[in-house]
Amino acid sequence: MASILDPVRLGSLTLPNRIAMAPVTRARSGHDGVPTPANAAYYAQRASAGLIVSEATNVSPDSAAFELAPGLFTSAQTEGWRRVMEEVHAAGGTLFAQLWHGGRISSYALLQGRQPLAPSAVNDDLHLVQAYGALANGNYTRIAASPARAMNGDEIAHAIDEYRLAARNARLAGIDGVEIHAGNGYLPHQFLSPHTNRRDDEFGGSLVKRARFLELVLRAVLEEMPAQRVGVRISPFAGYNNAPDPQATETYTYLARLLSAAGVAYIHAADTNAWGGEPDMVRILDILRPNFGGAIIANGGLDPQSGQALIASGRADMVSFGRSFIANPDLVTRIERGGPYNEPDPYSFYGGGAQGYLDYPALAG
């Protein structure tokens, strides 16, 4: 029976344990999206995780769901990530960068006056779209989303190229791999959802056409990064950012088989509804396990005990923790010892400085 503390094979890597740090937006990069020395220290503190998946990292200046998130589309951002990786590797860690395009999840206030881009101009639900910004007084808060416009063919092709460039920059920065964020209502998820994708061209209509954007993004990324160093994050039943799919089982069965055929290292299965008390992990894993040959990382509403149960059952190969890693930089050690655990402070999740970011204590000894 496998343990959460056992080594695991993930693609071409052998990791020391089955505990992953989930992608957690912290909004503490520079205004130009360049990772800072504080970001490097933050990730290095958590290098005992078998795998760190970075906070969502913009592939494009047209992606800005959260202000002060990092990017991977300029040389300065790439160099900033190189410094992060030097510290993570010195501490013995492995980090994959999560590649992110927010699509319609944005505001003109975050895009220098431009409209957000989306598969279709679906704007009657903007009250459900979660964009965040930093106020002049230093506080960080949800802001009003702006109406999006439908992307034309050239803009879709350009967005796919932006993922390619981000994967190339990740490789140049010495990042160990990349995770394509295709969940939580962001751009690839928007193409997958028949609610947010109402196109009648090669990117909309049938399931195969709605999945085409993600398939082409994956192909582009695989031109720069070997498949065994690539993961994909999905959230099939997520209510977050309102990209529902009434045929989710069919959609994600197809997607799991597509990703398996491509040979990607893992699928990161996010059960975002679990935080609202309506967990979907069982039915997510029921879709993935029979249809995907790589590793499965389970995420959402888990604690060490429930994570261990998933691994022992064979339904998941790794489990990822977000809030627990925010508050416990030495989470692996704490799991080994059975606790105790620091409680996270939600008021310092986004924005700010070292408080609530670098000052959570590790266990003595």
Number of strands: 14
Taking the sheet with the most strands, its summary is:
8 strands, parallel, barrel
Strand percentage: 15-25%
Number of helices: 11
Gross morphology is globular
Rg calculated over all Cα atoms? 19 Å
The spatial strand order of the largest sheet comes to 3-4-5-10-11-12-13-14
Strand pairing plus helix content: what structural class? Answer: alpha/beta
Short overview:
By secondary structure, the chain is an alpha/beta fold. Helix content is 30%, strand content 16%. The strands form four sheets. Strands 3-4-5-10-11-12-13-14 form an eight-stranded parallel beta barrel, surrounded by four helices. The protein has a two-stranded antiparallel ribbon with strand order 1-2. It has a two-stranded parallel ribbon with strand order 6-9.
Characteristic key phrases:
single chain; 365 residues; alpha/beta; eight-stranded parallel beta barrel; two-stranded antiparallel sheet; 11 helices
Please give the structural blueprint.
Blueprint: E1 8-10, E2 13-15, E3 19-21, H1 37-45, E4 51-58, H2 75-90, E5 95-100, E6 117-118, E7 131-134, E8 140-143, E9 149-150, H3 153-172, E10 177-181, H4 187-192, H5 207-210, H6 212-222, E11 230-234, H7 248-262, E12 266-270, H8 281-288, E13 295-299, H9 304-313, E14 318-321, H10 323-327, H11 331-337
Parallel strand pairs: 3-4, 3-14, 4-5, 5-10, 6-9, 10-11, 11-12, 12-13, 13-14
Antiparallel strand pairs: 1-2, 7-8
Helix pairs in contact: 1-2, 3-6
Can you walk through the features of this model?
By secondary structure, the protein is an alpha/beta fold. 30% of the residues lie in helices and 16% in strands. The chain contains 11 helices and 14 strands. The strands form 4 sheets. Strands 3-4-5-10-11-12-13-14 form an 8-stranded parallel barrel, surrounded by 4 helices. Strands 1-2 form a two-stranded antiparallel ribbon. The radius of gyration is 19 Å and the shape is globular. The mean pLDDT is 97.
